Amino acid sequence: MLDVAALPESPWPEGEWEELAARAAEAAIRETPYAEWLDWDVAIEVAVRLTSDEEVRTLNRDYRDKDKPTNVLSFPMIQPDLLEAVTQNSDDGEVILGDIVLAHGVCLAEAEERGVSVADHATHLIVHGTLHLLGYDHMEDAQAEAMEDMERAALAKLGLHDPYPVRED
User: Distance between the two ends of the chain, CA-based, in angstroms?
Assistant: First the structure.
């Protein structure tokens, strides 16, 4: 069972952020070997914070030594090597997978640049962030390709655009 809490703050507009975040996180998990978690009695918890560029800049500086805002940050609560057994070892029937944080201004600018709605781009970023919570990364080409394929598949199932179109320069 998946339990997603969306926490929108100014300057994010009012909207159906909780539903959007839950759909995005579920779609991402379904593209991984952890899809079976969604059918288990254990509550898999994810928090999605929608906040300002300034807040994300501070987090990015404090946790990644990068003094600038970025579109999405993920804070996994479980080490990747412990994910396989995490649901069997839950004492209280809950597993906190982690937190995802989106920066409004960066998300808005990227959505405009791509010609998509802010909600659609936020959905992509939540899919991306959820995969990070599950230990996926894009530091090396093969990892990036695998992660992008999972993102494409999740977004396609949600009826959304391919965020990584092939460009010929």
Answer: 44
Residue 115 φ/ψ, nearest 5 degrees: 70, 35
- For residue 138, the SS3 value is coil
If we measure between CA atoms, which residue out of 58, 45, 53, 57 comes closest to residue 4? Answer: 45
Cα 118 to Cα 103: distance, rounded to the nearest angstrom = 11
Angstrom distance (rounded) from CA 60 to CA 82: 25
Distance, in Å, from the CA atom of 114 to the CA atom of 107, rounded to the nearest integer, reads 11
Cα separation, 67 vs 43, in Å, equals 35
Q: What is the pTM of this model?
A: 0.93
Displacement of CA 96 from its chain's centroid (Å): 14
Q: With residue 58 as reference, give the H or E element that holds it.
A: helix 53-64
Summarize pLDDT for 6-49 with one digit per residue, the tens: 999 999 999 999 999 999 999 999 999 999 989 988 889 999 99
